[in-house]
User: Which sequence fits this backbone?
């Protein structure tokens, strides 16, 4: 059961990354907004589990069920009930291509 949960979380992260890539939107700024909310606990690079679920539902995976959403939140969460949105964003946001000033001349 544990392996199945891990595979499901990995599949979601991969699917979320694909969805974010297709829509050409980064999710980290949405989490930054939630993190900066004055009603938020104001923990650096973390949001509450509820905030995490709201952002993911609104901007990453609308079709995700509650059980799957909790599994993903747990993967990036800590024992205090907070979710590290920077780690999650690093997995789903598009990767920037490294700039190489001489690449064109080398090809």
Assistant:
């Amino acid at each position: 059961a544990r392996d199945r949960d891990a595979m499901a979380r990995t599949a979601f992260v991969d699917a979320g990354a694909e969805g974010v890539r297709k829509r050409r939107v980064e999710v980290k700024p949405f989490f930054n907004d939630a993190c900066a909310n004055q009603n938020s606990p104001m923990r650096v690079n973390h949001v509450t589990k509820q905030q995490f679920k709201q952002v993911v539902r609104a901007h990453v995976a609308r079709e995700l069920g509650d059980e799957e959403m909790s599994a993903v939140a747990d993967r990036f969460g800590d024992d205090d009930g907070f979710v590290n949105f920077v780690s999650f964003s690093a997995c789903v946001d598009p990767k920037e291509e490294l700039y190489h000033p001489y690449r064109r001349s080398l090809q």
User: Anything to note?
Assistant: The chain has a mean pLDDT of 75. The CA atoms of residues 9 and 72 lie 6 Å apart. Helices lie at 2-23, 28-36, 49-59, 66-76, 85-92, 103-106. The first strand starts at residue 46 and ends at 48.
